[in-house]
Amino acid sequence: MDWKAANFDWNRARAAVVTAETGSLSAAARALGLTQPTLGRQVAALEEELGVSLFTRAGKRMELTEAGLTLVDHFRTMAEAAHAAALAATGQSQEIAGVVTITAAHLYATELLPPILAQIREEAPALRIRVIVSLAMSDLMRREADIAVRHARPDQPDLTAKLVTEHDAALYATPELLTRGPFETLPFIGYDLADTYVSMLHQKGIMVPPENIAVMAEDSHAQRAMARAGLGVVPLPLWCGDADPVLVRAQPDAPPLVRFPVWLAAHRDLHTSRRIRLVFDRIAEGLARASPLANE
């Protein structure tokens, strides 16, 4: 390689990539934690170093020129290589200290994770733990999180996953709501306007008409709060619904409504880190213990 030919500032190349992806100097500056004038000077200096115009200004928008379209692909490759190097370096860390970020759905983050995290903190007090309430697997791919609790196995090749346990779910409601009429005429709490949930109920022999989905929320924690207020019948994991002092099983003699997997995922490069491995293993153990199926 001719190292003398690569004579531009790579930090300026990063500024150009972020500007291209965000579309403006102000958005790129916010993403990089810089002031807009500083970032603008970096982009201008890169253009001067390379002797080409990378962007045209259209109001506040920054649009790539033909030369910019070609070069930004190379800059993006450089950024991805730097990102991979950072992941590899983090993965080689053998110190049980630092920050570990976990992403999980609201119900798991607020109900099952706290006692597990307390155990981890007692075992490794130098660790700092950050929890993100989210269902997006992109949290891991973008390095926004180190470990994810999910209900589907990730299919991205850079991720490794472990099936921790399986949880059963049933329908719950307040006792007062269940006295209002025949079960299938009661209001139900759903996820969205799609008919996926209604179809699943029909497959289970629960012939609820779509118009009976009276309240909708994507978050299970919010759904449970709505059910506790008497707004409808709600599906919940058994470990959550059975322990709730306000709710009862809507069909106490029926088998569980559904059984769903609980996966723990992490980036492959991070899975060799002692701190990531410690947190990963303790969460896996804790979630398995919390499952009523663990002793079957």
Strand residue percentage: 15-25%
| DSSP helix fraction | 40-55%
Please give the count of helices: 10
Low-confidence stretches: none
Distance between the termini: 61 Å
Shape label: elongated
What's the order of the H and E elements? HHHEEHEHEHEEEHEHEHEEH
The structure class reads alpha/beta
Q: Give the biggest sheet.
A: 7 strands, mixed
CATH class of the largest domain, please?
Alpha Beta
Rg for CA atoms: 25 Å
Summed up, the domain count is: 3
The total beta strand count reads 11
CATH structural fold name of the largest domain: D-Maltodextrin-Binding Protein, domain 2
- At the fourth level of CATH, the homologous superfamily of the largest domain is Periplasmic binding protein-like II
Average of the residue pLDDT scores: 85
What CATH architecture of the largest domain do you see?
Answer: 3-Layer(aba) Sandwich
